[in-house]
Each structure stands twice: as structure tokens, then as C-alpha cells.
Write a structure and sequence with these properties.
The chain is mainly beta. The protein has strands spanning about 1-15, 20-30, 40-50, 55-60, 75-80, 80-90, 95-105, 110-115, 125-130, 135-140, 145-150, 160-165, 175-180, 185-190. About 20% of the residues are buried. This is F-box protein interaction domain protein.
Length: about 200
């Protein structure tokens, strides 16, 4: 079996004065290219946490919803002792689930999920999780190149995503680039310049 390693989060546990990394290992049986893919080729993922203080990895005995695209830095945020990432499918069961944000508490080593707004994310071109003025921001870039920016009020509560503003389509803007420390939002133009 060959593992695929996904780093889901890195952050600081202020109670234990420790830096930690949470990761998922997915295991697949290596099959010939001529062989048919079977669900038996996939083994349930294993979650591990690394402690800088002990310089070791430890298995977590919890089931966290898996997701596609979790290696993308656009979908990860650390704030107040918790790592957050987007989850669009549950690979452990190989089926789609309602899109949600997974939050992992580095001190208590537990997770919770926050649903993304149903009906809002269905026609997206890309989804982003960012930090905006100290709040978790969920940014949807739709197929018309409009950016919908919402911030989270309360973890675990679907209705607490508050619309902040919409950036209307612009022919020169290609994609969201990042967030500034003072609330600025940077976009990449088609000529790779930032605006």
C-alpha cells in the first residue's frame, strides 16, 4: 500500500506551548494500469498529529470528514488555536456531501464542521478560505468571475455566514491572490500583475 499524505493544518497550541501539524494519510493498493479500480483498493484514512515539543507523530482516534483539494493553500486558515479547511466530498465513503468547513481544535484535539451556505456554492468556479480582519472569510468566485465575500460569525452554525460585499466581474481580474494584514484583498490580473 502506498500512502498519500495531506497536510491539513499547522498552528500553535497556546495551552501546551507547542506547535502542531495535523495530517491525513490515505492508503491505496497499487494496481496495474490495466486493472479495474475497485472500492476495495481504498483503505480508510488515518489522521495523525505532530508535536514539535515531543518531536513525534501520534495517531488520532477520530473520524474527520475527508475532502478533495485539501492540499490547496486557498482552503486552509489558522486562527485562535484552530485549523480550518474546506471539505467538498467525503473520500472515505467516496461520495459527495454538503460542502462544509472542518475546524480542528489543536488543544482539545477535536473537530467540528460548519456547513457552507447550501445553494450558494453550487455554481462556483473556485472557493477560498481566508483570514479577513481576524475573521474567517469564505470567498466564492462564480462562473461569471464575481467574488462573493462572507465572514463567519459562529463555528458550527450554518446561518452565521454574513455577506460582507461582492466584487463585480472585471475583464482584467483572473483570480483571488490573497489578503493583506489590514483587510486589503489582492487579485491577480490576466497579465499576472496584482491589483
Amino acid at each position: 500500500m502506498q500512502p498519500l499524505v495531506y497536510s491539513n493544518g499547522f498552528g500553535y497550541d497556546h495551552v501546551r506551548d507547542d506547535c502542531k501539524v495535523i495530517r491525513r494519510l490515505s492508503f491505496f493498493y497499487i494496481i496495474d494500469i490495466d486493472e479495474q479500480w475497485e472500492e476495495d483498493s481504498y483503505v480508510d484514512p488515518r489522521w495523525e498529529i505532530y508535536s514539535l515539543r515531543s518531536n513525534s507523530w501520534r495517531k488520532l482516534n477520530i473520524e474527520i470528514p475527508c475532502c478533495n483539494g485539501e492540499n490547496s493553500p486557498n482552503e486552509k486558515v489558522y486562527v485562535d488555536g484552530m485549523c480550518h479547511w474546506l471539505s467538498l466530498t467525503d473520500e472515505s465513503n467516496c461520495h459527495s456531501v454538503e460542502p462544509h468547513m472542518v475546524s480542528f481544535d489543536l488543544y482539545n484535539e477535536v473537530f467540528l464542521t460548519t456547513p457552507l451556505l447550501s445553494g450558494v456554492v453550487e455554481l462556483y468556479d473556485s472557493l477560498h478560505l481566508k483570514l479577513l480582519n481576524g475573521s474567517i472569510a469564505f470567498i466564492i468566485q462564480d462562473q461569471e468571475n464575481t467574488f462573493h465575500v462572507r465572514i463567519l460569525g459562529e463555528l458550527g452554525v450554518n446561518k452565521s455566514w454574513t455577506k460582507i460585499f461582492i466584487v463585480d466581474p472585471s475583464p482584467c481580474i483572473e483570480q483571488l491572490f490573497g489578503m493583506g494584514t489590514k483587510g486589503g484583498i489582492f487579485f491577480k490580473k490576466h497579465d499576472h500583475e496584482l491589483v
